[in-house]
Amino acid sequence: MNITFQVSLYPIARKEFKTPIDNFIKELRDDGIKVEVHETSTIGSGDSSKVFDSLKKAYSSAARSGDTVMVLTVVNGAPTKEELDKLNA
To answer: What is the pLDDT of residues 21-77, one digit of tens each?
Structure first.
């Protein structure tokens, strides 16, 4: 099943928080997950099994370096880009 997801990663109580976020995104991309980075979240899509496996691995890696919150929204029937363009017109 193909899914679309929105994920935000929040390293807690760290002076240097950008590196864990950058590494998280890099791990998703290295696993072949298509993602677009936005100001407050990352949006991606792919096969549900592959996406969940990659998110689990990337989150575990981030959490090993300190306390980390991940917020995830998943949908299996997201509108197409064309549908979104019409809604935003």
So the answer is: 999 999 999 999 999 999 999 999 999 999 999 999 999 999 998 999 999 999 998
Q: Report how far residue 37's alpha carbon sits from residue 48's, in angstroms, rounded to the nearest whole number.
A: 19
Q: Positive or negative, the Cα torsion across 33, 11, 9, 36?
A: negative
Q: How far is CA 67 from CA 29, 63, 73, 76, 87, in A?
A: 23, 6, 20, 30, 38
Q: What does pTM read for this prediction?
A: 0.86
What letter represents residue 76's amino acid? N
CA gap 77, 75 in Å, rounded? 6
- What does the radius of gyration of the chain's CA atoms come to, in whole angstroms? 14
Q: b/e per residue, 7-35, with b = 16+ CB within 10 A?
A: bebebeeeeeeeebbeebbebbbeeebeb
